Amino acid sequence: MARVRLNDIARICGVDISTVSRAIRGDNRVKPATRDKIQQIAEKIGYLPNLLARNLAGGTTRTIWLILPSLDANVDHRFVRSASHQANESDYTLFVALHDSDSFGALASNTSEHYELILERAVQGTTDGVVIIPRRGRDDSKLLGQIERMNLPLVFLDNYTESLQCPIVTTENVDAAAELARRAVASGATGIVILFGGLNPVDEARRAGAQRAVEEAGVPFCFERDVPRQLRSLGPSVAVLGSSQSSSILPFLTKHSAKLLRHRLIFGVFDDWIGEPSPADKVIVAVQDCDRMAREAVDRLIALIERRKQRNRRLRKIPVREFREQTAMVAYGRPVATD
Amino acid sequence: MARVRLNDIARICGVDISTVSRAIRGDNRVKPATRDKIQQIAEKIGYLPNLLARNLAGGTTRTIWLILPSLDANVDHRFVRSASHQANESDYTLFVALHDSDSFGALASNTSEHYELILERAVQGTTDGVVIIPRRGRDDSKLLGQIERMNLPLVFLDNYTESLQCPIVTTENVDAAAELARRAVASGATGIVILFGGLNPVDEARRAGAQRAVEEAGVPFCFERDVPRQLRSLGPSVAVLGSSQSSSILPFLTKHSAKLLRHRLIFGVFDDWIGEPSPADKVIVAVQDCDRMAREAVDRLIALIERRKQRNRRLRKIPVREFREQTAMVAYGRPVATD
DNA sequence: TTGTACGCGTTATCAA
DNA sequence: TTGATAACGCGTACAA
Fold first, then answer.
1. A305 phi, psi to nearest 5 deg
2. Distance (Å, whole) CA A27 – CA B11
3. How is A172-183 classified by DSSP, letter by letter?
4. What's the predicted TM-score (pTM) here?
5. Is there a contact between A320 and A267 (Cβ–Cβ < 8 Å)?
6. Best of A52, A89, A143 to mutate (most B CBs within 10 Å, chain B)
7. Which bases of chain C are under 7 A from a protein CB atom?
8. Distance of alpha carbon B146 from alpha carbon A4, whole angstroms
9. Contacts of A333 (CB under 8 A, 6+ apart)
10. Residue B120 burial (C-beta neighbours within 10 Å; 0-12, 13-18, 19+)
């Protein structure tokens, strides 16, 4: 009733265990007749290899981990899907681990320091390499530095930390945010509120891009902290540019709703917008090319694992996939500021 | 630059590798002085145990898997959270694997037969046991039977397959559905549409419970297939009882909206209702006790793994945690059928 | 084409 | 309290 091992098959077939090992894995250095017989027997008595033993002996798990904060957003699903697909292409299996303390993990635990647990486990021989989407707004260099020191191949996806030397795959954020700003102006914005900036390198790049474009267009703008004082100077039609609907636009909206609703509004965000543009007339969305990003990240990781030479630069920027514009279906009869 | 092994520490400390092994794990059969010294060195040179080797030698991974279709619904998150917590209580780590082909997996793959892959991997020595929430409406007995034959401890959670002998933790569905029906009648329903039934044991239990309660109340009712003919006989106020908002109520609604909207509506569902009751006046929700279910399932699994005697019955039914009733905030001026 | 023998990193069983 | 040695199940040079 115990599990079937190579040994059992070897005894039944009257061959050596190493022959069985080869036959099972389809190694061609074994006579077709013996191979067939062995495979048949193996199938019949329900042999399944012990992955632990196989990986320990082979020194590789053919497994990579994708570690990300959560699966809340649609982009997360896209990252996961494409990464997993790409891993399979190279005959690797992708595991997903979530590290958001508000959420739970594939390696779940209710301690607040869940992230450490996952990373620790990752370097304990359970995986060959790691693709990480780091936490926004927190500096993980210490933790991740340890991974690097343990020689566990590591690639950043989307967001990243400056101090490490591992490859980074991210969006061409400067250009994307600039285009977002330009489109807002083209849609009639008389002033811009830039919510980007400060959180992390990605957010900072977006701020730079948006600011440059706005300055070039000669349109008045301000950052969030200046809104109470400078909102009036932005004119009747205000575009609000932020990284995401849920984490930047909506909080901003609830905080400043009283003043904002006297203006015509345009929102500019990354990734996606759920539901109607309301209270804006229009939403402009910069859709990141998650599929391509994930594929590239996985490819780089596997190259690292297999010690293939990487001819590309460390920082790889993928252009945004497309810009979507959505106009309100329902016209809301709101007064427009005329000051 | 290679990874530190027990061997390295042994050489440095001038003791045997087995002593190091004991010291690292806090075994008390080692002199405190030696233990401290060893642990100090280990810490210093960054030793981390190789989990593969440890598990192979120990014959256990202290790991269990929770395999479920997806994380779409809120209940899924609750299951995961509580299961993970309970696993940690017993010093196990919980891994989550998703097997819905429309979704992706923790063990991700884009083949349609993802589920097999996950289950296959599970029996390959990577985990000590499995809690499974099976797919609705599909018979997995063949696949899962194989798991049972491989002697991998297995517990069903929520939904289940009759043919296997493993423990099942589910909701007291008969009673819950009956109470749902009773509350619908108490809320003024003159007739009931029962959407439960046919999909799986859970759904079937709910059908039985709802039907019994409705018959006892002497209120006319019908199943989905009879709606076109019998809707009129249900009177002006119709309660629609189904397992979930997204997978039973909404499809039903879109299919029969023309006729339905001439009635006053009440919805009865399990788990949760998102948004307004509209187009119903009222929604009654039977909230399953996911936390308790998950905890109990994990406990049973661990007992199975550790071969503790199970004194409980095979089928464990947890009562619903609570019933919520939500009335429409906005009164929709819809005509009510009077025939 | 097949078998021998060793290694993977750790735990566990004996003796000492 | 320690150390030698055998597992754990499999992969793989090397030899035959």
1. -60, -45
2. 39
3. -HHHHHHHHHHH
4. 0.85
5. no
6. A52
7. 1-5, 7-13
8. 14
9. none
10. middle
Omega before A279 within 30 of 0, i.e. cis? yes
| Nearest CB to A84 within list B55, B93, B104 | B104
Nearest Cα residue to A205 out of A160, A235, A246: A160
Cα separation of A215 and A223, whole Å?
A: 13
Is A264:A281 a contact under the CB 8 Å cutoff?
yes
The mean per-residue pLDDT over the stretch B241-267 comes to 89
Task: Give the three-state DSSP class for B192.
Answer: strand
* Nearest CA-CA distance, residue A151 and chain B, Å: 8
| H helix or E strand, kind and range, residue B51 | helix B51-58
Tell me which residue has tokens 């884009």: B110
* Tens of pLDDT, residues B207-235: 999 999 999 999 999 999 999 999 999 99
Omega of the bond prior to B49 within 30 degrees of 0, cis? Answer: no
Pairing of strands B221-223, B191-194: parallel
Residue B275 confidence (pLDDT) above 70: yes
The protein residue nearest nucleotide C11, judged by CA to C1', is B57
- The pLDDT of B271-275, averaged and rounded, is 85
**Strand D CB shell (< 7 Å):** A 3, 5-7, 17-18, 21-22, 24-25, 49-50, 53-54, 56-58; B 14-19, 22, 28-32, 34, 53, 56-57, 59
Distance separating the N- and C-terminal Cα atoms of chain A: 84
Q: What is the pLDDT of residue A240?
A: 97
Quote the pLDDT of residue B112. Answer: 43
Low-confidence ranges of chain A (pLDDT < 50): 103-112, 330-339
